[in-house]
């Protein structure tokens, strides 16, 4: 939103991992076309980004795109990685006219590919998040810091964001407004 960026150990490790797949290129391995650093966009949804790797799997004379996103850690409890991948699938479907039923997340820590089916639930969740993001961008206002403070520990933007400092005035403002409202009610 504010186009801020800061590096920490986790982002640096992510960069090192992505250096393999960030360069745009196309090659064929064991009969499968593999595109790296592939720019993606969906005019229908108004989103754009870049896929780490897209394989084009042959089936019944057609090539089905199969997006693969590289992640430095391991499989997580939340679904953010899956949502990112599903957004890539939407773009590929829009760009190629082919349905994209599945993709995969490759986690460097476990060195494993985890298959991600783009089922109805994940598609709905992803569309919902795209819509929420559009609302945030249209508001032109940076959202407040997360209430999940555990998420801030590994965030490279911590020093720029200063979530604790920001939340203090908000709390004070809320208390002030509550006091004013109560006083107003007493007066009426
Ligand atoms: S420091 Fe916390 S609130 Fe701020 S951007 Fe990072 S995760 Fe979000």
Characterize the largest beta sheet: strand count, sense, and whether it forms a barrel: 6 strands, mixed
- Estimate the mean pLDDT confidence: 88
Number of H- or I-type helical stretches: 5
Bound molecules: iron/sulfur cluster
Radius of gyration (CA) equals 21 Å
Please explain how this structure is put together:
The chain is built from five helices and six strands. The protein has helices at residues 9-18, 80-96, 120-139, 158-161, 163-187; strands spanning 25-29, 32-42, 47-59, 62-71, 102-107, 112-117. By secondary structure, the protein is an alpha+beta fold. The model has no long low-confidence stretch (mean pLDDT 88). Helices cover 40% and strands 27% of the residues. A hairpin with a 2-residue loop joins strand 1 (25-29) and strand 2 (32-42). A six-stranded mixed sheet has the order 1-2-3-4-5-6. The chain folds into two domains: 9-143, no CATH class; 151-188. The protein starts with 8 loop residues before the first helix and ends with a helix. Bound molecules: iron/sulfur cluster (SF4). Iron/sulfur cluster binds at residues 145-146, 151-152, 155, 157-158, 161, 163.
Précis, in short:
With 188 residues, this protein is α+β, with helices and mostly antiparallel strands.
């Amino acid at each position: 939103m504010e186009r801020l960026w800061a590096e920490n150990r986790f982002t640096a490790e992510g960069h090192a991992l992505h250096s393999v797949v960030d360069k745009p290129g196309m090659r064929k391995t064991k009969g499968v076309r593999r595109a790296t650093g592939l720019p993606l966009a969906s005019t229908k949804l108004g989103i754009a980004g870049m896929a780490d790797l897209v394989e084009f799997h042959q089936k019944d004379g057609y090539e089905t795109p199969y997006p693969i996103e590289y992640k430095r850690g391991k499989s997580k409890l939340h679904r953010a990685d899956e949502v990112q991948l599903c957004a890539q699938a939407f773009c590929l479907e829009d760009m190629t006219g082919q349905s994209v039923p599945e993709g995969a997340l490759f986690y460097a820590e476990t060195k494993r590919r985890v298959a991600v089916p783009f089922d109805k639930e994940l598609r709905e969740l992803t569309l919902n998040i795209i819509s929420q993001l559009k609302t945030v961008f249209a508001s032109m206002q940076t959202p407040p810091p997360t209430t999940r403070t555990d998420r801030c520990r590994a965030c490279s933007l911590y020093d720029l964001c200063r979530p604790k400092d920001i939340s203090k005035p908000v709390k004070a403002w809320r208390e002030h407004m509550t006091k004013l409202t109560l006083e107003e009610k007493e007066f009426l």
